[in-house]
Amino acid sequence: MHFLGVLLSGRGSNFVAIADSIDAGRIPNARIAAVISNVPDAAGIKIARERGLTALVIPSRGRPRAEQEREVAAALQQYNVHLICLAGYMRLLSPWFVKQFPQRILNIHPSLLPAFPGLEAQEQAFVYGVKISGCTVHFVDEELDHGPIIVQKAVQVLDTDDEHTLAARILEQEHIAYSEAINIVLGRQFDIVGRRLRPRTEPL
Ligand code: GAR
What we know:
The chain is of the alpha/beta class. The chain folds into two domains: 1-101, 3-Layer(aba) Sandwich (Rossmann fold), CATH 3.40.50.170; 108-204, Formyl transferase, N-terminal domain (Rossmann fold, 3-Layer(aba) Sandwich). Helix content is 35%, strand content 25%. Helix 1 crosses helix 6 and helix 5 crosses helix 6. It is globular. The two termini are 28 Å apart.
């Protein structure tokens, strides 16, 4: 059984998509062992409780980063989490935290990286005038929105779009992409060569 930990700060729709995929058997042999929010009133944490999942608030506001991260890492270890899914966790993780979980932290970002890292990526893409945007699920490394890419989904920008309609269509793809990426990572049938995930070919 694979124990997942979900870190979130807000709405939690990606968390719900992951939980639904697990419940529907689309991510086999997995369960969400803990949902952790750095924001006390995050909607996602309420949903996690309603679903009967272990839901913890470990506030970040007004605290030293290292102290909050040590608490998060300890909780993840306590619940035997071996794959961490950042799902709208709006906090940059320190190199120390990343080192605690090598190749075990995933993030979803609402653009086709390396374009438009950082905040409000959908709006950045819309304002820039790109014709195609999308989302990216990637391993987390020490840099913001940066590690090796696992799954990307493209979304066309329509003439009738504004940043909100574009963000909504990207979000639909995020919900599909995250479960796909989790399955790829749990399947472990790849090597990471440079930044590239290279499928492992089975010996004959
Ligand atoms: C999602 O669009 C996610 O891609 C984005 O925050 C939103 C969270 O929504 N993450 C980032 O921008 C990370 N850089 P959710 O709480 O409904 O999953």
